[in-house]
């Protein structure tokens, strides 16, 4: 284990000066506060008076030609609903006032892993994308004393196995424990809240349990050191589960936005779709072997056994680099569970305009306030997988066009994609993460101090 680096002396000096400043000359501070309070009231009163007076002049002028008008087409109005405008304005206000401090950890915790190019673009790469976006985000603050949340950037999914190439996360608990020990030793912010306002990313199969097999993950549980924090994780179910026994936000798996854009240039979402039902991925032919007995709870095995000979279903067991082109040509995309309930196919299907058919009992889908999952997808119970043909036929004959219209909304696609331009864009996946965090501002130590101060003043 390499020696842990302390933060630069300038930062330690800044924190000490901040602490000393908070314990300064009390009487003089009170005197200054009283003068400032009186001055502030007069400025505020004058500003409101001018605002209402000019507003009256503008709205009452019959010759005013700057009043916005609504352009209505023959088919439907383009006017944005008032509730949506108010909701967006409220969100913008909350995010503008919310602040996140990003710890600058030694590179062994994050950027050293980027030596492997896969680290920043595989399905678990949301841990990298969120970190990069926050570094240039307007919600970032360099003053930890004004922060509502503290982001701890530890990459645990980039340790790829030399045997099968899959992420090996046996080191995750040790790496995160080391990072927490560092920030709790060098900074006062972890200890004062016991980590309740600190945020981590766990973007692999069973999230903060840090294991790829559910039975082992459940037995290990979430590390005690994280129990009081907030975890952004791809794993989520609607029923109690040891691997979500922590304050958490369900996030989408990472799908490279540039690959989606490239595919849509060849096959736009409203283009011709010549594949009726599509799935490409691991499907066991022999249900009696170990993988066949446990993997996907045999759902994928049943799909292959039942529909491999059905000409309506395009089922492929081998990997293909250009499989997104197949998704863009498909009407329905099957999204059965694998080892975990979630799958990158959920994001790829939505992004490429293919109706996702979710086959994973009890799954909790990401960003339900921004993505209207019930209007853009189908849910089929695992026990009903043998009836897929009839279920999809019924939908195709009734409300398929309605589902597709909702599905092809660009805002839905944007909400599930993390940007690769290293910044937060309004409405994108990192933006949705920030919105979800804004709903947890009650965990902000800074806000609790302000609340206590207001109570003591009344």
N-to-C series of helices and strands? HHHEHEHHEHEEHEHHEHEHEHEHHHHH
Strand content: 5-15%
Helix count equals: 18
Helix % is 40-55%
Quaternary state of this entry equals single chain
**Number of domain modules:** 2
- Which structural class do the helices and strands define? alpha/beta
Low-confidence region ranges: 1-33, 51-87
Shape: globular
Widest beta sheet: strand line-up: 1-2-3-4-5
Rg calc: 26 Å
Largest sheet: 5 strands, parallel
Number of strands: 10
What's the N-to-C terminus distance? 53 Å
In round numbers, the mean pLDDT is 83
GO cellular component, one term: Golgi membrane
Subcellular location: Golgi apparatus membrane
GO molecular function, one term: glycosyltransferase activity
Pfam family, one: Exostosin_GT47
